[in-house]
Amino acid sequence: MIFDILTLFPEMFLSPLEGSIIGKAREACKVTINLFNIRDYAEGKHRVTDDYPFGGGKGMIMKPEPIIRGVEALQANKPTARVILMTPQGTPLRQEMVKRLAQHARLIIICGRYEGVDERVRAVVDEEISIGDYVLTGGELAALVLVDAVARMIPGVLGDEEASEDDSFSKGLLEYPHYTRPREFAGRRVPEVLISGDHQAIEQWRRAETLRRTWERRPDLISRARLSDEDQRILEKLNGTSGTD
Ligand code: ADE
């Protein structure tokens, strides 16, 4: 999979994309991440990329021509790419979106800066994505979040031991609690069932904890999730105990 990133600050991407799982995936050519400086597509001696807003107001607006020229130059390459604009006005990023985007062979990601981009940039954009209801200084950190989340869904990027199937959100619920050695730490013991060797009991415990955790922390996810009859029974029990914990 190819990620082509259009940004005014390519250096912001270097270290986060070098280390760990994404760094290894790049070395193994499972993902290619190309950085393009929007300034290189700007014209004139000063290669200006921003300007004052028509109608007045604070801040600077990113000019349309350099961004659109950049997208058009990249779209001349194959395979065809889906064009994404990172903006707090976009659709909030969720795991289903991440999975869908991982099906594409190539994404072009535009990082906005300043007060925003000229509205006419939207003509070349397929999708606008926000990483949450807060405003960053630019789309670069948001693009990094997107690349990380999408890249780890590409087959072969995660090893078996890091499989993405059981993740929080992969089935629309939060993950159960995890423990490793020691069995007892600071007077707190690992739940007995996890050292029982009884795989069926462990699976049941994990499912119940997944439901409990999601019900306590993210009840909004429960209402969207596909639940079995057994899940419903567990939730009814939790509802019965609410207020007593
Ligand atoms: N640019 C600035 N804030 C952003 C956000 N929350 N999501 C995506 N892009 C952004």
Provide the residue-averaged pLDDT.
Answer: 94
Largest sheet: 5 strands, parallel
Instruction: Please give the number of β-strands.
Output: 10
The tally of helices reads: 7
**CA-based shape:** elongated
Question: SSE order in H/E notation?
Answer: EHEEEHEHEEEHEEHHH
Contiguous low-pLDDT stretches (5 residues minimum) are none
Alpha carbon gap, first and last residue: 47 Å
Write up what this structure looks like.
The chain starts with a strand and ends with a helix. The strands form three sheets. A five-stranded parallel beta sheet has the order 2-1-6-5-8. It has about 240 residues and is of the alpha/beta class. The chain has helices at about 20-25, 65-75, 95-100, 140-150, 200-215, 220-225, 230-240, and strands at about 1-5, 30-35, 50, 60, 80-90, 105-110, 115, 125-130, 185, 190. The longest helix has 19 residues, at about 200-215. The mean pLDDT is about 95. Adenine (ADE) binds near residues 130 and 136.
Summarize the structure.
This protein is of the alpha/beta class.
Which helices and strands occur, and which strands form pairs?
Blueprint: E1 2-7, H1 20-27, E2 32-37, E3 50-51, E4 61-62, H2 64-75, E5 82-92, H3 95-101, E6 106-111, E7 116-117, E8 127-130, H4 140-151, E9 184-185, E10 188-189, H5 199-217, H6 219-224, H7 229-241
Helix pairs in contact: 5-7
The protein binds adenine.
Features of the shown structure:
245 residues; alpha/beta; 7 helices; 31% helix; 18% strand; elongated; binds adenine
